[in-house]
Fold this protein.
Amino acid sequence: MSTDFRKTLMAVVIATLSFSVIACSSSLEGKYTNGTGMVVIEFSTDKAFVTMGALTAEGSYKVDGDQIIIEAEDEKIVLTRNSDGSLSGPKDSFIGRLTKQKT
C-alpha cells in the first residue's frame, strides 16, 4: 500500500468517525418545551408526541437536513433545528423556540 493511499484512507476513516460522533450527539430523542411550557414535543426513536395545553397528539417525524417534519392527526408541523440544539417553530406560530429539557 502506498503512503498516499494510507493517508487518504486514514482521512476518510477519521472523517467518518467524526461524523458518526456528531450524528449521535445531536439526537432528537427527548423532551422539548417552549418558554411558556404550553407546547411540549417529545421525540422517541420513531414517534413524536406533541402536547399543546391539555391536548396531546401522537405522530411520526422525519429529519431532513435542519428541518424536522412532524405529521400528527392530519397536520404537519415543520420545525427548524438551530445551531445551539434548540428547535424553532414555524414563523408566526405560537410554538416559538423549543429547548431540550434535561432528564
Q: What stands out?
A: Strands lie at 30-33, 39-43, 48-52, 55-64, 67-72, 75-81, 87-88, 97-100. Residues 3-25 form the longest helix (23 residues).
